[in-house]
Design a protein that fits this description.
Blueprint: H1 11-31, H2 35-48, H3 53-65, H4 69-82, H5 87-99, H6 103-116, H7 121-133, H8 137-150, H9 155-167, H10 171-184, H11 189-201, H12 205-212, E1 245-249, H13 254-260, E2 273-278, H14 283-286, E3 293-297, E4 307-310, H15 314-317, H16 336-346, E5 352-357, H17 370-376, H18 380-383, E6 391-395, H19 400-409, E7 418-420, H20 428-435, E8 440-444, H21 447-454, E9 459-463, E10 484-488, H22 496-513
Parallel strand pairs: 1-2, 1-4, 2-3, 5-6, 5-8, 6-7, 8-9, 9-10
Helix pairs in contact: 1-2, 1-3, 2-3, 3-4, 4-5, 5-6, 5-7, 6-7, 7-8, 8-9, 9-10, 9-11, 10-11, 11-12, 13-21, 16-20
């Protein structure tokens, strides 16, 4: 065999030079965020030299940046097969797996990265993040604290600590962590947003609404609609609106719109005309707020207006406190004709009529909300442990996944029958008219709970352990909805105690009814 090692015309050396040139060119494209071009260079480099772990690792990063997670994972696997001593590759594979919501494998990769480099700050932080997703909150807290020893001025880590403390319901300590984060980086929107939630759940509305305005700059803004651009001034309570028209526009979910639309009527007291822009499903119902309010769906050609205000900024503009919420119910009203129609149809059901909602709206394009979504939902079979022959259960549930649950139990004699008319509900005015004919609504934290409260129907809210701020901490009632009773989880992910308490309370309710 010929020895090329001392030959200046060594063809193997030439091959390696070409592979390295392509690799470096790919790195340049990667830095410029031209990911497709980077992938092409890396792929050609691999054709020449398929044994370089760096090329696979960097191509994986390019695939990841394009959202091609399976391809990225394949390249990370190949890079680690070639070299198992690089902590950054394990870390990046952990990030990929975390994004794919494969939390257990992500955790293994972060731990491997930390075995190779015990002072790997980002791996510590991300291990804390995945532990939080796995609801191992105490362990997550210890990870963040360990990371903070390495970088004491990491405002993001302080914010993460605050989030976990909040979820553990240590609100004072969480507030301190968020404030410490803001002290280091005053414009850190996530910490401001989290601080607002911390204030609000404790009933400190004065500071809470002020910090709540940071939602527009929050990095988790995909939970909310993008802030729109307007050619008229934003109104937050300073200017006189006498004889002026203001556009109030909904910005988040259906439940948020139902909860906050009550404040729109305040404009009548200050002589303003109101155009209310909301989700199409709510237009007919919210027109009952007042004859003086023009209610329009998103995408409509709007009339002239002089000011605008996002719906959820109204509490700040009107300086809303918990006491301001009293004596405001009901503030929307079901259609009289529709109510009567449903009254006739439901008259065939004797006994106590209970509407059920066991699952909140699932947003497939918002993975950051999935964990909360699943924590707030109750399996229908578990909810139907509430049994009594005097009760007629009616589904108020929309959505493909929960409706599959309903179909699965229809022929199961072990479970109470649940009557379902929801396919006839075109919008929320139909739902409201139907609810008006029921005696009680039992719901997880979703828009129907707000609807029932807004029209003044008895509503029992089944609330997860890490409660939403709007229900306040430690209360069984709600200043937002006097007809509401809150059944709070005592332990995370444990609905058994809640169902038992509801079963006891409903027996008392039946004694009053019959």
């Amino acid at each position: 065999m010929r020895d090329y090692s001392k030959n200046e015309h060594n063809p193997l050396k030439a091959i390696n030079i070409n592979a390295m040139t392509l690799f470096k060119r790919g790195n340049d494209y990667l830095e410029l965020k031209q990911f497709s071009e980077a992938i092409e260079c890396y792929s050609n480099s691999i054709l020449i030299n398929p044994a370089d772990h760096n090329v696979y690792s960097n191509r994986a990063n390019a695939y990841f940046s394009l959202g091609l997670l399976e391809k990225a994972l394949g390249d990370f696997n190949k890079a680690i097969e070639l070299n198992q001593t690089i902590p950054e590759i394990f870390f990046n594979r952990g990030v990929c797996l975390f994004t794919m919501r494969n939390f257990h494998e992500a955790l293994e990769n972060y731990e491997r990265a930390l075995e190779l480099n015990p002072h790997y700050f980002s791996a510590l932080v991300n291990r804390g993040n995945v532990l939080r997703e796995l609801r191992k909150l105490d362990e997550a807290l210890r990870n963040y604290a360990q990371a903070l020893k390495i970088q004491p001025n990491s405002y993001e880590t302080l914010n993460n600590i605050g989030v976990v403390l909040y979820e553990l319901r240590y609100f004072t300590e969480a507030q301190e962590a968020f404030q410490a984060s803001i002290d280091i980086f005053p414009d850190y929107a996530s910490a401001h947003w989290n601080l607002s939630i911390c204030y609000l759940i404790q009933g400190n509305y004065e500071q809470g609404w002020l910090e709540f305005e940071w939602r527009w700059k929050n990095q988790l803004g995909s939970l909310y609609s993008a802030q729109r651009k307007f050619n008229v001034p934003l109104w937050l309570g300073q200017e006189s609106l006498e004889g002026k028209t203001i556009l109030i526009h909904a910005e988040q979910g259906l439940g948020d719109t139902l909860q906050f639309c009550r404040f729109v009527k305040f404009f009548e007291l200050i002589g303003a005309r109101v155009v209310l822009e909301v989700q199409e499903q709510l237009v007919e119902l919210l027109q009952t707020l007042s004859r003086n309010i023009v209610c329009m769906p998103f995408g409509s050609s709007l009339p002239h207006y002089d000011f605008h205000c996002p719906l959820m900024s109204l509490p700040l503009a009107f300086k809303i406190s918990i006491h301001t919420l009293e004596n405001q119910l009901p503030y929307i009203f079901p259609d009289f004709i529709k109510v009567n129609e449903w009254q006739k149809r439901l008259s065939i059901y004797e006994g106590f009529k209970v509407g059920l909602v066991w699952s909140g709206g699932y947003r497939a394009n918002q993975p950051e909300s999935w964990a909360t979504h699943f924590r707030r939902n109750i399996p229908l079979k578990q909810l139907l442990k509430i049994k009594n022959p005097q009760i007629n259960f009616f589904s108020l549930q929309k959505g493909e996944i929960p409706n599959k649950e309903l179909k699965q139990i229809k022929n199961d004699t072990d479970f109470t029958k649940v009557v379902d008319y929801t396919t006839e509900f075109v919008d929320f005015s139909d739902t409201a008219a139907f609810i008006q004919n029921l005696d009680l609504i039992i719901s997880v934290d979703t828009s129907v709970a707000h609807l029932a409260g807004a029209i003044g129907k008895p509503i029992w809210l089944l609330n997860r352990y890490d409660s939403c701020w709007r229900w306040l901490f430690g209360r069984e009632d709600s200043p937002w909805y006097p007809s509401m009773k809150i059944f709070q989880q005592i332990y995370p992910n444990n609905w058994e105690d809640v169902i038992l308490k509801v079963s006891t309370e409903i027996e008392k309710k039946l004694e009053e009814f019959f």
